Amino acid sequence: MKNDQTTSNGKSVLGPGTKAPDFTLKCTPDQSVSLSDFRGAPVILAFYPADWSPVCGDQLALYNEVLPEFRRFGAALLGISVDGAWCHAAYAKDRRLHFPLLADFHPKGETAQSYGAYRHQEGVCERALFVIDSEGTIRWSYLSPIGVNPGADGILAALEGLTSQESSASR
Q: What is the pLDDT of residues 89-123, one digit of tens each?
């Protein structure tokens, strides 16, 4: 899958081998989640522009359907946008999503910016994916055009790659 990884503002999203920046974001109006809470297991970060938009809806519905495959690799999926926790709660309930949506709401886009996945012109997240290993290192990243659903194949291939790296390291 060819991708130049350059965002709309000319910067690049963080690439493989980079330590994933930790964050703490609201997953409900009264609860927060940190990336470090998931240490010891792979994590998929799916940055997306906005709840209720057609392409985001398709993308998140697909991830909801393939969630059992992600979990087969022991991976947690976290969706991240600049929408607020109340908006995420309504959206997740309406769409019957079974993974957390995190609010990069205030300071707006701070986490997305730390991953190079923020569109300053529009004030939304890029459509960017990251697979982070159990030690907190980015092993795969992908920047999709904002109007294109990136699908799940790249994520699954990256998770498979993590599994084969771990099995060859344990031999």
A: 999 999 999 999 999 999 999 999 999 999 999 99
Provide the whole-model pTM. Answer: 0.92
Token pair 């092993």 is at which residue?
A: 139
Whose CA is closest to 1, among 153, 126, 139? 153
Whether the CB-CB separation of 150 and 60 falls below 8 Å is answered with no
- Using pLDDT thresholds of 50, 70 and 90, give the confidence band for residue 9: low
Helix/strand/coil for 108: coil
* Residue of 27, 56, 87, 125 marked catalytic: 56
Encoding tokens for residue 87?
A: 């908006």
56 in active site? yes
Strand spans (E) along the chain: 24-28, 31-34, 43-47, 76-81, 101-103, 118-119, 124-125, 127-132, 138-144
